[in-house]
Design goal:
Strand content: 15-25%
Helix content: 25-40%
Number of helices: 9
CATH superfamily of the largest domain: HAD superfamily/HAD-like
Number of domains: 2
Oligomer: single chain
GO cellular component, one term: cytoplasm
CATH topology of the largest domain: Rossmann fold
Structural class: alpha/beta
Strand order of the largest sheet: 5-4-1-13-14-15
Distance between the termini: 15 Å
Order of helices and strands: EEEHEHEHEHEEHEEEHEHEHEHE
Protein name: Acid sugar phosphatase
Family: Belongs to the HAD-like hydrolase superfamily.
CATH architecture of the largest domain: 3-Layer(aba) Sandwich
Shape: globular
GO molecular function: metal ion binding; phosphatase activity
Largest sheet: 6 strands, parallel
Cofactor: Mg(2+)
CATH class of the largest domain: Alpha Beta
Length: 267
């Protein structure tokens, strides 16, 4: 019995598991191809708020990993949907992040504004490679004026071909230092919403989460009540997994995605 045989859905983190920067993680396209050929249900859940689901699916497909937009759950979309449910229609929101984040907010029926002077009732902060001091200054002023502060995620780093680089969590920390407090809400992993939404969409009863980070992917799986596989192609190490507290302890640990097709490793 292969590890994957025990589950009706496999939910993949992206950075460090399937992709690394602009390239695929070695072996990932072949592993996903085997799952597709076997008729396995898959989903992708990413804390990266810079791309929209259709853009993520196109990126994956271009790297040899077939994907549909409906299979992709992003923290940007989750944040937009959460605010749309909590705020009046067309409420003004300040987006600090990439164009993909602003597009998700607009699609959710919110009004994206340019700065604190426009009176935003919420500030949404997500990763964007062009985010700078001026963006953080506008967010700082808006939050001090009473705007709700929502972070798409608090990943300290993101993997790249050159090693770990500052992630959205580093930018959130800069704003938290200036404000003297933490965000009102963090939507992305380790919150369980992305995994739960993927399972609902697929109608899955027993999902396996595959990730490379203990503090986000694995902790999110624990909170969602799902089994998890930590692969050692990204951030966290085997030693860190062995020392992890129960709140972020993986069910399985393996070198890479080939473990999905082997007999289940020792939990």
């Amino acid at each position: 019995m292969a590890l994957v045989d025990g589950y009706d859905l496999v939910i993949f983190d992206l950075d460090g598991v399937v992709i690394e920067g602009a390239a695929a993680v070695p072996g990932a396209p072949a592993a996903l191809g085997r799952l597709r050929a076997a008729g396995r249900a898959v989903a992708f859940a990413t804390n990266n708020a810079s791309r929209r689901p259709a853009d993520v699916a196109a990126l994956l497909t271009g790297l040899g990993v077939a994907a549909a937009a409906a299979e992709v759950q992003t923290s940007a979309r989750a944040a937009a949907q959460r605010l749309a449910a909590d705020l009046p229609a067309a409420a003004p929101v300040l987006a600090v992040g990439a164009p993909g984040l602003r597009a998700e907010l607009a699609d959710a029926g919110l009004t994206v504004v340019a700065g604190a002077a426009d009176g935003p009732v919420a500030v949404v902060q997500g990763y964007g490679p062009q985010v700078g001091w001026a963006d953080l200054a506008e967010a700082c002023v808006a939050v001090r004026a009473g705007a709700r502060w929502v972070a798409t995620n608090t990943d300290r780093t993101l993997p790249s071909e050159r090693g770990p680089l500052p992630g959205n969590g580093a930018l959130v920390a800069a704003l938290a230092t200036a404000l003297g407090r933490q965000p009102d809400l963090v939507v992305g992993k380790p919150a369980p919403e992305l995994f739960q939404a993927a399972a609902r969409r697929a109608g899955a009863r027993r999902a396996l989460v595959v990730g490379d980070r203990l503090d986000t992917d694995i902790a999110g799986a624990v909170r969602a009540g799902m089994d998890s596989l930590l692969v050692l192609t990204g951030v966290s190490t085997r030693r860190e997994a062995a020392q992890a507290q129960p709140a972020c302890r993986p069910t399985f640990v393996a070198p890479d995605l080939d473990a999905l097709f082997d007999a289940p490793p020792v939990p």
